[in-house]
Amino acid sequence: MMHLKGDLDEAESQYRASLCMQQRILGEDADHPGVAASLHQLGIILQLKGDLGGAESRHRASLSMEQRIYGEDAKHERIASSLHQLGRILEEKGYLDKAESKYRASLRMQRRIHGNHTDHPGIAIAQYQLGRVLEENADLNGAELHYRTSLYMMQRIVGHNADHPVIAALLHELGTILEKKEDFDGAESQCRASLSMQQRMQDEDGHGMDIASSLNQLGLILQKKGDLDGAESKYRESLKMYRRIYGEDADHPNIAGSFT
C-alpha cells in the first residue's frame, strides 16, 4: 500500500520487516509462498528506487523459491510474474538479450497457463514488453509483430472502441516503429490515435507525460513528412507541457529534446 502512495522508503521498511518475521517463524532457509511473495514485492520497490542490483537479487531469489515450491517446470502465475520482472530489470540494465530471454519465458508460461489461443491481459502485456526489447535491439519487424499482436488482443479484451492506457501506449509504440521504418503516413495515423486516446483519458488540462511524448513524436513525424508548420506547432505544445511538468526553468532531457 505504501508504494502506491509514493512512500518507497516506508514500503521498503515494511516489506523487509515482513520478510524478516516470516523467516524467523518459518526458518531462515524455508521455502514458502509468503516469503517468495515478500522477496518479489521487495524487488519491485528496489527497482522503483533505482537499486537494480538489489532488485535483481530479490527477484532471482523469489523465482528460485517459487520453482522449488511449485516445481521447476510448473505453470504458475507467480513464476510468470517473476520472469517478467527479471526481464524488466535486465532491460533497464541494458542486458537486452537476457531481457528478451526472460520475456519469452514469461510469455511461454502465460500461454501454458491460459492457452495458446486465449486472449488474456497477461499474454498481451508479455507481448508488449517483448516488442519493446526487440525494438531496443533494432529488430523492427519483430517488434512491430509483437506490438500488433498485443494491440489486437487488448482491443478484443477491453473492446475495439474502448480507451485504455495499454492500448494508447501500443499505438504510440507502433507509431514509433513505423516512423523508424519510414512509413510516415502509418506512423502519423497511429500516433494521432494514441494522442487522442490519451487526451480523452486525461483531465481537461491534459498535462500528462505521455501526451507530451506523443506530441513530440508527432512533431518528428510531421517534420519528416515535410510539414514544418505542423511539426513546429506540435513541438511547441510538447515543450509547453514539459515545462508545466518539470518547471519553467528546469533542465531536463525531455525539455532539451523539444528544442532539437
Q: How is this structure best described in words?
A:
The protein folds into three domains: 1-16 and 32-68, no CATH class; 78-161, Serine Threonine Protein Phosphatase 5, Tetratricopeptide repeat, CATH 1.25.40; 163-260, Serine Threonine Protein Phosphatase 5, Tetratricopeptide repeat (Alpha Horseshoe). Mean pLDDT is 91; it is low at 1-5. The protein is mostly helical and 260 residues long. Helix 3 (52-70) packs antiparallel against helix 4 (77-92). The protein is globular, with a radius of gyration of 21 Å. It contains twelve helices and no strands.
Please give the structural blueprint.
Blueprint (H helix, E strand, L loop, with lengths): L7 H19 L6 H16 L3 H19 L6 H16 L3 H19 L6 H16 L3 H19 L6 H16 L3 H18 L7 H16 L3 H19 L6 H5 L3
Helix pairs in contact: 1-2, 2-3, 2-4, 3-4, 4-5, 5-6, 6-7, 6-8, 7-8, 8-9, 8-10, 9-10, 10-11
Put simply, the count of helices is: 12
CATH topology of the largest domain: Serine Threonine Protein Phosphatase 5, Tetratricopeptide repeat
The CATH superfamily label of the largest domain reads Tetratricopeptide repeat domain
Average pLDDT taken over every residue: 91
How widely separated are the two ends? 41 Å
Q: Estimate what percentage of residues fall within beta strands.
A: under 5%
Indicate the CATH class of the largest domain.
Mainly Alpha
Main beta-sheet annotation: none
Structural class: mainly alpha
> Helix amount, in percent?
over 70%
Second CATH tier, the architecture of the largest domain: Alpha Horseshoe
